[in-house]
Amino acid sequence: MISLSRPSGTSSVVKDADGTLHTLLHVLENGRGPHVEATARLAADGTLQVFEASGHHEMGNQFSARFQRVGARAEWRATEESGAQQVEGPAFYVPLAETPEVDGWLVQAALQHAGRLPLLPAGEAHVERMEEIKVASPSARTLVGYRLSGLSLAPSYTWMNPDGSWFGSASEWFSVVPEGWDGLIPALLEQQRVWERARNEKDARELAQPLPAAGLAFSHARVLDVERGRYLDDHSVLVRGGTIAELGPSAKLKLPEGVQVVDLAGRTLMPGLWDMHVHLGDADGALNIAAGVTTVRDVGNDPNKLDDQRQRFEANQAIGPHVLRFGFIEGRGEKAASSVVTAEIPEEAKRAVQTFAERKYEGVKIYNSVKPELVPLIAQEAHARGMRVTGHIPVHMLAHEAVNAGYDGIEHINMLFLNFFATHETDTRDITRFTLVGDKAPDLDLASRPVQEFFGLLREKKTVVDPTLTAFEALYVGEAGKIVPGMEEIVARLPPNTARAQLLGGLPVAADKRERYRLAWDRLLAMVKALYDAKVTLVIGTDDLGGVMLHHELALFARAGVPNAAILRMATTEAARSLGLQRQVGSIAKGLRADLVVVDGDPLTRIEDASRVVTVVRGDVMFDAAAVSRSTNVAPVVGR
After folding, report:
1. Which residues pair with 480 in a beta bridge?
2. Given its phi and psi angles, is residue 38 left (phi above 0), alpha (psi -120 to 50 degrees) or beta?
3. Residue 551: which residues within 8 A CB-CB, separation 6 or more?
4. Which of 221, 340, 407, 552 ranks highest by number of CB atoms within 10 Å?
5. What is the distance of C-alpha 197 from the center of its chain?
6. Beta pairing, strands 156-160 & 141-149
7. CA-to-CA distance for 535 and 640, rounded, in angstroms?
8. Pairwise CA distance, residues 119 & 122, whole Å
9. Which has the closest alpha carbon to 392: 373, 410, 413?
10. In what order do the strands lie in the sheet with 322-329?
């Protein structure tokens, strides 16, 4: 198991004489990871006949699972789900247990059935043979690539040997290859990028509509003035050359000859939304556009892939938002997160910042294992180059110290709580950074002097706080087998196997602690409201599934008690202002970039209506939100 070129675990398979397969997966990445022991037997047609597994998921929550098919009856029972179906013909059960070898078994089975195979509990897989590549090191071998569709939001790829056995899978985040073959991963990734670029370009040709040279006008719109938190009724907006050329009352604004006019008939026209905490994956570009998210800030990724994505989005060779990049800097060690760029000594810290400056990144993100003594140096180097600094609070450091050392922003609400619960000896590189908050947050008095003094420091330093509530809700209130309350409509729109992942549950919490962790979650919401009341700068980020979860984040801010008008400001013009871009983008005004969203609803009154996206303009192209959403296998909110 390789994560961003660093070994992060192992997966092994033993085959008995009777064909029974025994797999063992163990991963330690970013202080956590799954451990899965499984046994499987394949039917004559390659589908799973029996599958049994036990162990723990990424966050440590224990599970067990069993699937069996006898004749036409398939049954499964696991910690997270159970069910049974009468199945006529072949069908492949997809385990929730992390088992990399399933990719190979699925390809082998699908190829026996013309490349298509129904999935259990739901869905259909399509397996497509791509191309062969010949490799010479560590030994000569021919590999065959396959594209797997129908399992998730975007296709994935896996590699087979010429004899039909599974070789492995490669991705920027996690690759699984035979021991000693990790040097081949870059070549596999590059070939997969060729295939993905071709697929992305096809989607862009079909779904991105270039705006006419004469311009596009939205007439009779209810324009959202985010700065003042009000609507401008019956207004028209003219877009030309990717810029808002004119704005005014529909009755008075004279439109030039040849302009394409779209009559919104009173629908809402609002600025494009921003997600300030993403790690862009293959499906996230389209997911964001479908949700009206026209700008994202990526705070940790493979730099080569991220730069390529950004370039293709801007060239309209792929569907995606504008991308602002913060380079990921981490320390080294067993509990460190995998990172292309690491720093353990001052010279490495300087070189890390320089690396991202040369790529013209807008900032850097400091992660858990960076040594506290390097933080002021990284901040100084970044600021000298006009770059901003955000991040987690490194182990052995507290949030107020990071702010005083030069942080411009803090990622994640738990980092603020740890300012009061952690000490310089607390190891926050594992799930302790979550469980300590769950254990102690209910007792933190947000009106106390230490908390208010900390808020005062954040306000004085103009520190930008990105709470990413969606990243914590399931951790504190999630239970195995249950959808988090309030997520039902979102989960219902997701493809089956993506939806099933919402059943995994949260932190490994004893039954007698569950209520306390629910109270801790309530305290996280209360802190967001307290930060807002204290006039600390807040922005909206997710660290979660692209697009759809941004709308959930908006709803969580509303649940916390933040007014809708303020939430919409945070998700648009405040995000732009936090990066010094408010005179270029973020609101609907003459001369600003035309990032616009047509919404069938009233988000000032009901924040959930922000998800009712009809049309999206990102600069000089326009998208039908429903069509883009369907390209990711996600059912649209409007236009189903």
Report:
1. none
2. beta
3. 291, 490, 608, 610, 611
4. 221
5. 20
6. antiparallel
7. 40
8. 5
9. 410
10. 273-278, 293-298, 322-329, 363-366, 388-391
Residue 344 C-beta-side C-alpha neighbours within 13 Å:
4
Backbone angles phi, psi at 187, to 5 degrees: -70, -40
Reduced to 3 states (helix: H, G, I; strand: E, B; else coil), residue 413 is coil
Torsion of CA 189, 192, 194, 195, to 10 degrees: -170
Q: Which one-letter amino acid corresponds to residue 144?
A: V
Alpha-carbon Rg for the chain in angstroms: 25
d(CA 353, CA 364): 7
Residue pair 331/342 in contact (Cβ under 8 Å)? The answer is yes
Alpha carbon distance 503, 480 (integer Å): 5
Within a 10 A sphere around the Cβ of 265, how many other Cβ atoms? 9
Least Cα distance to 456 among 526, 562, 534, 402 occurs for 534
Q: Using CA atoms, how far apart are residues 635 and 495, in angstroms rounded to an integer?
A: 8
How do residues 329-378 score in pLDDT, each as one tens digit? 999 999 999 999 999 999 999 999 999 999 999 999 999 999 999 999 99
197 strand-pairing partners: none
Q: Which two tokens stand for residue 200?
A: 């992305």
Q: How far is 267 from 366, CA to CA, in rounded Å?
A: 42
What is the per-residue pLDDT across 109-161, written as a single tens digit (0 to 9) for each? Answer: 999 999 999 999 999 999 999 999 999 878 889 999 999 999 999 999 999 99
Q: Are 16 and 349 a contacting pair, CB within 8 Å?
A: no
Show the beta-strand stretches assigned E in 347-455. Answer: 363-366, 388-391, 409-411
How many residues does the structure list for the chain?
640
Please answer whether residues 274 and 300 qualify as being in contact, where contact means their C-beta atoms are separated by less than 8 angstroms.
no
What is d(CA 478, CA 539) in angstroms, rounded to the nearest whole number? 25
**One-letter amino acid of 214:** A
User: Which residue carries 């807002």 as its tokens?
Assistant: 532
The three-point CA angle 553-634-96 to 5° equals: 85
Rounded to the nearest 10 degrees, how much is the dihedral formed by the CA atoms of 88, 92, 97, 102?
160
pLDDT in tens, 70-117: 999 999 999 999 999 999 999 999 999 999 999 999 999 999 999 999
Q: For tokens 């922003």, name the residue.
A: 409
Question: What pLDDT is attached to residue 640?
Answer: 67
> Which residue is associated with the tokens 């990724």?
301
